[in-house]
Amino acid sequence: MKYDVIDLHGKKVDAIELADSVFGVAVRPDILARVVQWQLDCRRAGTHKTKDIGEVSGSGKKPFKQKGTGRARQGQKRAPNQYHGGVAFGPVVRSHAYSLNKKIRALGMRVALSLKAKENRLFILDDMKAAKPSTAAFKKAFAANKWGSVLFVGGEKLDDNFALSARNIVDVDVLPAQGANVYDIIRRDVLVLSKDAVAKLEGRLSND
Hints:
This protein is an alpha/beta fold. The protein is about 35% helix and about 15% strand.
């Protein structure tokens, strides 16, 4: 498909051909949900923990005799039903990560890119470079393009001035092409790719 290439101020400077196999696939909400859930699960720290009966402090001695007190029988003070006792079946430190098929991950990227293109929330920049760091200049460009929540994806190496200019703007992320992922694409309203990023993504996703 033909797509306009613009500069940071929204002026058309060129046109580019986008691969339909990457930017024109059918939108699959189920695939997006699977990939996003996988990403979020892999990010979880898994450091939640409670103490079980063997970890709480206290004696294992029987608190009172079995019979004759009129009270319910008790085995020890550290039991889960006791005050300050251990927790039964509580969370333990573990990894929440699991494997997801490589083809599903690649399809999720294609669907996310195609969704942005279909909704006209995909923009292609001629380059992602800045002469000097200037957050004020970036804010003016965002206002001219009516961009709010934006993800910029550059080439293999980001321009330092460009990254510094965007760093202090709320709801703006800048990633290299190898760091592009479904969750970050979906969580921002607008996706802006450089021409280098388009080439990298098409090369990465056309082989899967």
